[in-house]
Specification:
This protein has 362 residues and is α/β, with parallel strands linked by helices. The protein has 14 helices and 13 strands. The chain has helices at residues 3-6, 9-12, 20-23, 58-68, 80-92, 109-116, 134-139, 162-172, 227-236, 244-253, 256-281, 307-313, 338-349, 355-361; strands at residues 29-30, 75-78, 99-102, 120-123, 144-150, 177-181, 203-208, 221-225, 286-289, 296-301, 316-317, 319-320, 330-334. The strands form three sheets. The protein has a seven-stranded mixed β-sheet with strand order 2-8-7-6-5-3-4, with helices on both faces. A four-stranded antiparallel β-sheet has the order 9-10-13-12, with helices on one face. Helix 8 links the parallel strand 5 (144-150) and strand 6. It starts with a helix and ends with a helix.
């Protein structure tokens, strides 16, 4: 038999998630992966690398529990929030029988992870304001074990309103888990659902150190959930998911000094985001700059605008979202340094204005 004949059929048909690094590009302004633009300063402490690490390092668990305001037994540390997405599918979904549900436009890994494990995917498109279509979700819930909701949502940047989330949690009680992806929550901490965990045992929260903590290269994420959920995830997680250097750096990031640095970054990015939003609105090629509660802006350009390719050719790498439902002609722009954002604005001001845009402006 050939290798392809040995492979699972669903994997052969799988279209992998196109991460920023897979998409490539060659530039010096990287604004396509929602990373913090500058490297943090870290110091590796002496560790016994000849020994396997703890499955769940105590210092990291205690530090994150204190930061998130939850009990230690409600925290699981894993290899980025992406692993959390997969662990939940492995623990709760029977391949070929159960389904997950999510609401595009949103993060693409929910779909890819489900397909990888042979679990059905159901989609309920978000409403025009990118809030939840609750009646349509309720109509699709039979057979669904996990409902993934990203808030702030990637790539739109909006939060899901609390009353919508409460209605979803009531609707799914006794039927499915609601997984709130809070990868960007540090940019709007008042919107976290962490305080709801005691009231909703079927609520699960995904977190990461990749964004505001400036540690995307560390691959360290967290699942916050009822202790019973955490114990089930511990049955399917790898024996040693977090290396000693990762645990060391994560523990430092969660120290009082590390949290102060993180909040300083958030204030800096938020200020630059506000400046960039105003500047982009003055660019003739831009139709709309959407409000954002995250470290990126979603921007709609005139139909046929050469913005993406033009900036790509100049070494300014953005993320094209045009294939997402309802996001035709949209680009996602990560908030970089002020100088990087100035380069984006300068490049966009040089773009020709299409005839379509001129007509819409009249």
């Amino acid at each position: 038999m050939t290798i392809s004949q040995l492979a699972r059929a669903n994997v052969l048909a799988l279209e992998p998630y196109q991460s920023a690094r897979r998409l490539g590009g060659s530039g010096d302004v990287w604004l396509n992966a929602n990373e913090y633009p500058l490297p943090p300063s870290v110091t590796l402490r002496q560790g016994n690398l000849n020994r396997y690490p703890a499955c769940q390092p105590e210092g990291v668990i205690n530090g994150y529990a204190a930061y998130a305001g939850v009990k230690e037994d409600a925290v699981l540390v894993c290899r980025g929030a992406d692993e959390g997405i997969e662990l939940l599918i492995r623990a709760f979904c029977e391949p070929g029988r159960d389904a997950i549900l999510f609401c595009p436009p949103t993060y693409g890994m929910y779909a890819v992870s489900a397909e990888t494990f042979g679990v059905a995917r159901r989609t309920v498109p978000a409403l025009p304001d990118w809030q939840l279509n609750l009646p349509a979700i309720e109509a699709q819930l039979d057979g669904v074990k996990l409902v993934y909701v990203c808030s702030p949502n990637n790539p739109t940047g909006n939060i899901i309103q609390p009353e919508e989330l409460k209605a979803l949690l009531e609707m799914t009680r006794g039927r499915a888990l609601v997984v709130a992806d809070e990868a960007y929550i540090e940019f709007c901490p008042e919107a976290t659902l962490a305080g709801w965990l005691a009231h909703y045992p079927h609520l699960v929260i995904l977190r990461t150190l990749s964004k505001a903590f400036a540690l995307a290269g560390l691959r360290c994420g967290f699942v916050l959930a009822d202790a019973e959920v955490i114990q089930l995830l511990l049955k399917v997680i790898a024996p040693y998911p977090v290396s000693l250097p990762v645990a060391d750096i994560a523990e430092q990031a969660l120290s009082a000094e590390g949290l102060t640095l993180m909040r300083d970054r958030v204030a800096e990015i938020t200020a630059t985001r506000g400046w960039l939003a105003v500047e982009l609105q003055q660019c003739e090629a831009v139709l709309e700059v959407y409000p954002s509660e995250s470290n990126y802006l979603l921007v709609r350009f005139a139909p046929g605008s050469p913005a993406f390719k033009s900036l790509w050719d100049q070494g300014i790498i953005l993320r094209n979202q045009s294939k997402q439902p309802g996001l035709a002609d949209c680009l996602r722009i990560t908030i970089g340094t002020r100088e990087e954002c100035r380069r984006v604005v300068a490049a966009l001001r040089e773009l020709p204005v299409t005839a379509t845009h001129r007509q819409e402006a009249l």
